[in-house]
Design a protein that fits this description.
Its main location: endoplasmic reticulum. By secondary structure, the protein is of the alpha/beta class. The chain has helices spanning about 30-50, 95-110, 140-155, 175-185, 230-235, 245-250, 250-255, 260-265, 285-300, 330-345, 350-360, 365-385; strands spanning about 5-10, 15-20, 60-65, 70-75, 80-85, 125, 165-170, 195-200, 210, 215, 225, 240, 275-280, 305-310, 315, 390-400, 410-420. It is elongated, with a radius of gyration of 24 Å.
Length: about 425
């Protein structure tokens, strides 16, 4: 294969990257003029092909062939455009274009220190605002408590699982701490460099994903460093908003995981960084875009994903009181309801999980972070080269309820822990 040149354009038409190998120089045209011409040409060809044969533009791919060369075009859901010109004898190179996106673009553009990827001004420490109320504020007491729960969980039959992602609850530790341990004990921090923490927004209306502007997150054990580089890469896409300090402080879905993360990573000498992401109410189109964006990170074995979610919130105070007497007592109905959703999550089926949510209205507060994880798994099949594509398996390892509801004026919250591992 002979490669002539490569262009990468942003969704606004700005040329982010250009490299040439074998090509004839256009002496009467400036480089900026050439970039504008190529971007306009691609727009025209894409429109023309879509009118003639809409199915040809599958998964964002397109090719255009002449007697002298072949143009290969790939557009991501986030609007990035990759244009590779080769000799005309080259066949289908979709996997190569996938790799351009998932490897070359991430490593040589987003991670280029001369780029504006790290454009978030990060400073200050986010205080552990829920310490002393939702969990212990004394570091020694908290450490002993976490150690006891992890030791108890290590005695379970699932203690040999090695997590690439986990789902765990975010309620007060009195209620959910023991359940969360069953997910966290499956983490081997040895080869993990960063943790992506995804939690739902409880206090503010949000229809995007949002990043922190803090440099550190405080815990009673030690302060966790935020990965400014990766956060900058995500923010540069234009899809992420930024939490203000009050929003960041108020949200417990992220904070409640910090002590467990800190405890587990003590084994690695605290040598890791955190990327907290507040996940808003995302429709199917946005889930697809964010899923495609996060898929390469999920498939990178140096990364761990932590998904924050409680399950059914049952009771009048939650405006959710369904019950089918055929399922037994109310708490038994809740358990069956939750397990039905858990089974669909284990199938890694985003459409089935969404169908379940529509039919039951189950009050799973982390439905969007869970959906985003499923979307990233789904999109990984499209954006990660097949040779690098991992095969995932999800397993729920613990389930509990804050109380067993027997009367209509009772209430409860359900907690579940799951582990995403590699198959084979």
């Amino acid at each position: 294969m002979v490669v002539y040149n490569l262009y990468i354009f942003s969704r606004t038409g700005q040329c982010l990257f250009y490299r040439e190998w074998l090509r004839r120089q256009q002496t009467n045209m400036t480089q900026d003029e050439e970039f504008k011409l190529m971007n306009g040409f691609i727009y025209s060809v894409k429109s023309f092909v879509q009118r003639l044969s809409p199915t040809d533009f599958k998964d964002g791919f397109l090719s255009y062939k002449t007697n002298c060369y072949k143009l290969h075009y790939y557009e991501t859901l986030t609007g990035l455009k990759f244009i590779l010109n080769t000799d005309s004898n080259v066949g289908n190179i979709r996997d190569i274009l996938h790799q351009l996106y998932s490897t070359i673009y991430v490593n040589y553009i987003l991670k280029n220190p001369r780029s504006s990827a790290s454009d978030i001004s990060m400073s200050s420490i986010r205080e552990a605002s829920h310490a002393g109320s939702w969990y212990e504020s004394d570091g020694n007491c908290l450490d002993q408590q976490l150690s006891a729960w992890l030791t108890e969980a290590n005695g379970s039959t699932n203690s040999r699982l090695k997590a690439r992602a986990i789902i765990a609850p975010h309620a007060g530790y009195t209620y959910s701490g023991p359940t969360a341990a069953y997910a966290y004990k499956s983490i081997d921090p040895t080869d993990i460099d960063r943790v992506f923490l995804l939690g739902p927004s409880h206090h503010y209306s949000l229809n995007t994903c949002a990043l922190t502007t803090h440099a550190f997150y405080e815990t009673p054990l030690y302060n966790i460093k935020i990965d400014a580089q990766i956060s900058g890469e995500l923010h540069k896409t234009g899809l992420f908003s930024l939490m203000n300090k009050q929003q960041d402080s108020d949200e417990h879905s992220l904070e409640m995981h910090l002590p467990y993360i800190a405890k587990v990573f003590e084994k690695k000498g605290k040598d890791f960084q955190l990327i907290p992401i507040l996940v808003g109410s995302l429709d199917s189109s946005k889930l697809e875009k964010y899923g495609q964006l996060l898929a390469p990170y999920l498939c990178d074995p140096r990364n761990l994903f932590v998904i924050s979610s409680d399950f059914c919130h049952w009771g009048r105070r939650f405006s959710y009181t369904p019950h089918n007497p055929e399922d037994g007592e109310i708490w038994q109905y809740i358990e069956k309801l939750d397990h039905k959703g858990m089974e669909l999550i284990e199938k890694l089926s985003l459409p089935d999980f969404h169908s379940y949510l529509r039919s039951t209205d189950n009050t799973i507060c982390g439905r969007y972070p869970i959906s985003l994880l499923l979307a990233a798994i789904e999109q990984s099949k499209k954006v990660v080269p097949s040779s690098q594509l991992p095969k995932f398996s999800m397993q729920f390892v613990k389930y509990a309820q804050s109380s067993r509801v027997k009367k209509s004026n009772d209430s409860s919250v359900s907690y579940a822990s799951a582990v995403l591992t590699l198959v084979g």
